[in-house]
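Quick one: examine the sequence and fold tokens given here and explain what the tokens say about the fold. Here goes:
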Amino acid sequence: MRSILIGGLAASALALAIGQANADEHGIKVGTVAGPETDVMQVAADVAEREYGLDVEIVEFTDYVTPNAALADGSLDANAYQHEPYMQSMIDDRGYDFAIAGRTFVYPIGAYSEKVDSIDALPDGATIALPNDPTNEGRSLILMHELGLITLDDPENLEATPLNIVENPHDFDFREIEAAQLPRVLPDVDMAFINNTFAQPAGLSLDDALIKEGPDSPYVNLIAVRAGDEDREAIQQLVDAYQSDEVAAKAEELFDGAAVPGWTEDEAE
């Protein structure tokens, strides 16, 4: 079962829209970002129902902020869409009390262009679009720093913004854009960093990215829960179902190799 919510709803409207999370251990609500990651979660839900009799209701969102608000207010039992640096930034900013129940996939971020076919062809003064959410913006800038395109004051600062650029020898013009809108603005900029969550549905292949993360990326996505719920039977059943061969195969199909399992064999047992 799936529900779809648009980002930016007030907490009261959100709670009214999807109700309180089901306390019955045979049913849980999990939030995802609409797109192929939801399709992957559907496979996990099917596995959980078959193996454990668990009823998983998937609630789809269209932004990165609202799923955490829904988890915090009890409207969800879990969400699966964010990596640990992003979750920690939300904890720091909003005081959420979250915990990691399990790990899902690394979805590498890439820089795409419709105007040049190599990073060496990027002109001075090029307009570069960045995701405006915490950590993913820094994630993009760190990749540029590592290539020597810019210099950051602290290349280990995962929340770096253009204000942290101390050297910009090519005079790049940076635009901060909501992540979901980046594929739409791609024709209007010289290059855009786009999360695979939004790149793949837009027909963009990581193989075509001018810059991309390697398989050793630390940005593995998580199944997040409220602190204290990580050992709940239903949550662990969901995690076990997610870390299954069926889910890995679906992610391979949908993301064409651009989804790397972030769990170990021991975790999946």
